[in-house]
Amino acid sequence: MPNINRRTFITGLTAISSLSFLGNASAHQSSPFTLSYQHGVASGDPLQTKVILWTRISFEPSLDQKPGTRGQAIRVQWQVSNNAQFTDIVSQGFTSTNANRDYTVKVDADQLKPDSRYFYRFICNQVISPIGRTRTLAAHGSTNSDDNDGSQTQQAELAVVSCSNYGYGYFNVYQEISQQTNLTAVLHLGDYIYEYANDVYSDPELANKQRSILPLTEITRLEDYRKRYNIYRLDSQLQAAHAAHPFICIWDDHEFANDSWQDGAQNHQADEGSWEQRRQVAIQAYREWLPIRDPLDNDHSEITYRRFDIGSLASLIMLDTRIVGRSKPVDYLSEIIWQQLPFDIRPLENQQDPVAITSEALLASLSADEIKMITVPFDMSKNPPQPVLDWALLSTLDLAKLEKPYALIPDAKRIQAELLDDPQRQLLGDTQEQWLSSELQDSKQKNIPWQILGQQILMGNVCMPDVTKLVNYKKGLSAATINAIVGLGKLNIPYNTDAWDGYNANRQRVLKSFKQDANNVISLAGDTHNSWAFDLTPSGESKSVAVEMATASVSSPGLENYLSNDNPEQLSSLLVEHNPQLIYQNSHQRGWLKLTITAEATTGQWRYVSTVKSKQYESIIGPSYTVAAGSHSLSLVES
Prior knowledge:
By secondary structure, the protein is an alpha+beta fold. The protein has three domains: about 1-135, Sandwich (Immunoglobulin-like); about 155-330 and about 420-639, 4-Layer Sandwich (Purple Acid Phosphatase, chain A, domain 2); about 340-410, no CATH class.
């Protein structure tokens, strides 16, 4: 006879007696279900008087295995209290869930007070969930007092995270964040999950043992995305962070597929079905499993850009740089423009070889019909490299299979002008870009000192320095690839066109808006798995108009995985030296960013964990950089 304790006995009785549980009496004639909250609780999208509460109901055996039960409503009670004993309940109500939303529960708890901390829980079939903690945002014009001397100061603390790859390591960063005591909210800037198969983009040692993901294949269907969120949300460290603080989330590409854009993705192939369908089911699963506020009419579930005001201190503006407006990014492999030189083709009339035009006067004297632009290789053994102008030699070279000392050289001016500066290549889309300008203007008019952008990708310009003597070619990227991105860097061409670097015209418009429409802009970013800090300066100007701080990843590998080397500090130094706007860089550690905001200044402190390969780790305090209101420039905080 199985061991039946008192809790199991009571749960079984209530499961049998509660008509609200499954909705029809006949379903209760079989053995009772046991329900639990395996995925913990979460809160998110805090406002001054509201906050989203989240949980998921789990069953043993699964309801999906019981005939006649799928889709039937499960009634769930929620409660918000001033204390952990729930003797002072301030808001409560009932909702329901079913298989149509994967038994996730999400409610918008209201009737709360601004700038207040609360406890919350769920009750289903008399089974009580774990208790979560949350807080609301301060109201406009309010202050909070944290000083022992009783003076009034206004301050907010945000934890900024991104890129949590389950198969690459433990979520020690989430554990660290769960232990923070004074956070206003956690900003998750995307890549909450990864879409790859278990053996793709993961640590083989972990992915085949303790950190194996489900499903084992790449996720493309609704049930796939749900299962992937399911396994991530079972993680105790992630649950601890969610239970401790409200999250404000925005997606990046891996909630869909790698390098997503409006109409496709690098990791979506024709044999994987319709992109539009994959995009839609990914959105559905994201909204089911994340504590994000849904649109009232549900007709625009793809829109996640939104604004949160933290009292009179800061406007937090969350942007979608990934799905709603992004054009297809520049693909250097197919779109690269090689240097060309003009040739005089008049000799062809006499069956003679064309002649390279090296005289400006001759070029000006010829008509367009007498000139042909020819892609020419360069002799790289010369210093500087010399173009091949001899037609006899040129006609023998296969441009697709050039061997040393010959190579093609990108045409930097045309790449910048025709690809990166293309005004039609958009990142935000017209609607969101106009919305952003409007929100900046409104925040400025309300005398809110800080406008903080929660978005996914680097806005600062990054070109690769010469790292050829630093990297270990036995690991990471191939020598050919490294040489290519270094070659681009020598021409001041950015290597990452998936970032704002690939959408420079859009970036310049937004930087102009920062200058005209805002007080003090701080752009936050994730995506790269590394830490960065920039002073953002528009093209052709000398003064910065905003700053950027980017967080390291929760567990995904960074530059150390691609530019493998024994001296990551030297790599970071080379990056800072080579890129004028770059102030700070960390190329090898996993971690998060703590942002402390006051009316006078905002400070970012980078924090790291010593490892993600074990749950035993040490916390590492990184450098802090501050930006004073009105300065639009970062300064190192001396320790």
